[in-house]
Amino acid sequence: MQELDIQISIEDDGWPPEPALQALCERVLGAAADYLAGNEGQPFPDMIPEVSLVFTDDAAIREINAEWRNQDKPTNVLSFPAFPLVPGGMPGPMLGDIVIARQTVLREADELSKTLEEHLTHLLVHGFLHLFGYDHMDAGEAEIMEGLETRILASLGLSDPYAGQDPI
């Protein structure tokens, strides 16, 4: 199993307790890292790579989204790679940051008839792939990224999020 140093910051009281989030993140991001290394030939640095996760609220993510993406609205997940990376490139020891907004995630999970854990799992995988240079700005990139998400989620026992109306 590919080891990761996962740092968590909880900035909103409505999230599950830190031990539960830590366990979920270790399971999900570990599975994603294993899939990338084993199936996509993704190299990992000799040092254990670090990823930072911020569990926040809609107000905070709206500010971040406005500042960094010029979109003055909340969103479900934002990813900030520590270094520019193309898929398959060697990451540095710090992968980057993933920020997730609780209210948006809960609303979307409800709309999708999914549990918080199921939708959060998808968003963690989605955000993690962004740290490795995957994107969905055009149809070709989206097809590759969505395919990876679907296969990683299947390895975790979850269905294809793109079979229905997924908001990502």
UniProtKB/TrEMBL annotation:
Cofactor(s) recorded in Swiss-Prot or TrEMBL: Zn(2+)
Keywords assigned by UniProt, alphabetized: Cytoplasm, Endonuclease, Hydrolase, Metal-binding, Nuclease, Ribosome biogenesis, rRNA processing, Zinc
CC cofactor note: Binds 1 zinc ion.
A biological process term (GO) from this entry: rRNA processing
Gene Ontology molecular function: metalloendopeptidase activity; RNA endonuclease activity; zinc ion binding
EC annotation from Swiss-Prot or TrEMBL: 3.1.-.-
Transmembrane parts of this sequence: none
Gene Ontology CC: one annotated term: cytoplasm
Cell compartments where the protein resides: Cytoplasm
Positions that bind Zn(2+): 126, 130, 136
InterPro entries: MetalPrtase_cat_dom_sf_prd, YbeY, YbeY_CS
UniProt key word Hydrolase: yes
Pfam families documented for this protein: YbeY
Free-text function comment from the UniProt entry: Single strand-specific metallo-endoribonuclease involved in late-stage 70S ribosome quality control and in maturation of the 3' terminus of the 16S rRNA.
Family from the record: Belongs to the endoribonuclease YbeY family.
Protein name in UniProt: Endoribonuclease YbeY
Organism, as annotated: Ciceribacter ferrooxidans
Lineage summary: Bacteria, Pseudomonadati, Pseudomonadota, Alphaproteobacteria, Hyphomicrobiales
